[in-house]
Amino acid sequence: MDQAVHELAGAPRTAPRSRASLRIGIVGAGFGGIGLAILLKRAGFSAITLFERGSGVGGTWRDNTYPGAACDVRSHLYSLSFAPRADWPESFSGQKEILAYIEDVARRFGITPLVRTNSCVVRAAYDDVRQVWRVETGDGAAHEFDIFVPAVGQLSKPVIPDFAGLAEFAGASFHSAAWDHSVALAGKRVALVGSAASAVQILPEITREAAHVDVFQRTPNWLLPRNNRAYPAWQRSLFRHLPPFRLALRLYLYLYGEFLFDAFRTGSWRNRLLKQMSLKHLEAQVQDPVLRQKMVPQYEVGCKRVLFTDDYYPCFNQPHVALVTEGIDRFESAGIRTRDGVLHEADVVVFATGFDVTNSLRPVEIHGRGGIDLQASWAHGPEAYRGVAVPQFPNLFMLYGPNTNLGHNSIIVMLEAQSRYIVQCLEHMVDRNLATIEVSEAATRDYNRWIQAQLGKMVWSTGCGNWYSTEGRVTANWSGSTLEYRRQMKRVVFGDFVETVAA
Q: How far apart are CA 25 and CA 33, in angstroms?
């Protein structure tokens, strides 16, 4: 693995650019990093290194091993278009199946030898004089690259709120993204803090063995049926032996997702339809009308992430599962005390409290031209040009950057569009023998004015306090359909970039 790393050189580069010699450092070996590496290899780029903080590839699907972990995008769409899998066992696959798929893709396309595992990038700084990126890892090593690509994803930094008295709690506690499998839940009182995407998958699993579960809900969520099912043997056989059948399903799933996009536009009929479907789902599955009312969101459907589940609501019909809607006051040795003075005893606390999207690149320090700090430049919220480039950061491209998240389709569609865009930029650099390529301030400013104007028409801007926004501005989500984004990313407008020719 180490042979793929480019150690610091003492002299500036003077040789002409070539696809084989352009040194590319990628941070993250999840779907984004691996997909980009495959497309780069196909285009003739071979000096590629992927830095992975974990013990293997997979990203979020390696880290999130909590009970019930699964994807809410259908399996045949939640995969790379150029690396289909024929034998998905069910329509919505679980964590183990998805991780196995990523590992297999990395092996098949020769990416595994390029990955430096257990290698956490802590700092990356652009050298203005030598026009290279110096990348430092936690073991004290430093490496040099011509191109630097953060591909860490928006959901890679777990967050546990700073609850009062948390250190006083005598039991076990952990975040859903760092599940402690050594802690047995059988016969225990469990506090599940959170009621969103991870919680709706965790609850049905832990209620099977825990003696009692309290679910601490700060805000109810809009839920829709998932309708997951195992594929019968005959259908899996068709997927294997008749690729057009599999491709037709993928196309259908993709176009259906695109059809749903308008549901996230404020006041649209599809938005009203989603609301009716969600309320009907709630009424059908929760028997107690008083409890049911506590689960009705008081914000626009879609403003926060819409969740898909078949078995979350029925858990609350069981006598050993309780919904707690009072706010948490503090943690104590024996459990959690809410603001109404009630102590909810617990042996184990599971935090399903999400991720820090705004600061997802931390703890990596990234310094661009003149030493400018990326996080400092994003003090009022992250922004980029088309989600991939940032002014004053030459030769830096990112995957799953600001304003590229989705609520209606597969994020892998976006990652592939970004990866192909980056490949175009690097091919252009080689063809023109460029030392640097950097998006202009004017192009970035114009792009973000445009996208914010578009986002003002969407439900994410209606003020529900979602993780999509920073200081009242939507900074995570893309404003349109994936078809629109793919059209926008199909060809690079090099007039929006500042280029310098290599000496």
A: 10
